[in-house]
Amino acid sequence: MTDASPAPSDDGAPRLDRPRLATLATTQLVAGIGVAAGVSVGALLAEEIAGTAAWSGLPQTAMVLGSALAAVPLARLAGRRGRRVALTTGYGLAAVGAALAFAAGTMRVLPLLLVGMLITGGGMAAGLQARFAATDGVPDSLRGRVLSVVVWASAVGAVAGPNLLSPGTKLGEALGVTALAGPWLFAVASLALAAIGIALLLRDPRPVAPPAARSIVRTLADLWAHPSGRLGLTAMATGHAVMVGIMAMSSVHLHGHGSTLTFIGIVISAHVAGMYALAPVFGWMTDRLGPWAAVGVGASLLLIGAGLTAVSGRIDAAGGMHGHAEGFATAGLVLIGLGWSAATIAAATLVSVLSHEGTASPTDVQGVADLTMGIAGASAGALSGVALAAWGYDGLSIAGAVLLLPLVWELVRARRLDSAHTHALEG
Predict the structure, then answer these.
(1) Which domain holds residue 160?
(2) What count of Cα atoms within 13 Å lies in the side-chain half-sphere of residue 189?
(3) CA 36 to chain centre
(4) pTM for this structure?
(5) Residue 45 in contact with residue 113, Cβ under 8 Å?
């Protein structure tokens, strides 16, 4: 395994490998353009090909499912061959998937689009693994902030991606193919560039002998048995499910009520900015106030955001002014992005710390956590289109708020455990 500490400084303390962190952050920025471009156009392209909004949630579902399926294999590859090989493989596969999605758009074949987005999900898995890679050899007191740097770097690329929707469609028209296939060309280029950048520039820490491999079930059980691991897994799963479920159908809902593609691109960009732009703040909060507090902030923001998107859906359902609905949807999606950021950064920090304390390979533990997160998101995405068709955007948003109940329960449980521990110390 290559998950070893970097060379110590003169005083014997671990030294942060800044060039390595810069490489991870920069390539994550570039890859973010491709992933965000695919997310923003996938639902609309599926709706255009299938002729119904009921199928529009499948591309996002396939992408998140691909991320989940790739999480453990890429993590184990990182354990055997190093982060550089694993991340290069993930981004490279994602570029191939984006090329298949472009071909599917030009030929108007929905199954091929889903296959392409499934493979593109490997890029999401690589991006998630990159945030854990940044914590290799870093003291526990700094893990939240270092992890958040890589998450924050995704902001520029992820915000730029949806804004390529309009020029991407013009590119598609200029090439004589389906307009909504055009943005996938930007995805192919950015993901391939990220893969090349990792392959050429990333340095792995000195290798050490890897621990014996453990099954996914045993690793998951060990994580769940620890209070911090249980909160981390719950926060990652529920936060991701709420974000994916509501966000995946937002473009379909807004477009169906008359919003322009330019406006939709701006709204998705604002949402993605919420997901990444304040990541360093939430990383600092995690390290200074504790992951439990940061998860609580994230849960609160997710709940308020879901409430605002529900109001947006109710206004449209009642035939009100769509401009007001657009305002509530925008505010809600920004808050959902912020809540996702706070919850997942704190949760990933909990998992990162625990992964280095046990006897299992850290990359295996991290991969299982990302697998759990991906399955939750994929499930939410799979049901989001059906929920939108059956209950409307307001009903979908309320369902998202209900998904937060297990996280609220874990936070209450954690508070009780902390209180009991404090009383025991005072006694």
Answers:
(1) 18-204+214-426
(2) 11
(3) 10
(4) 0.78
(5) yes
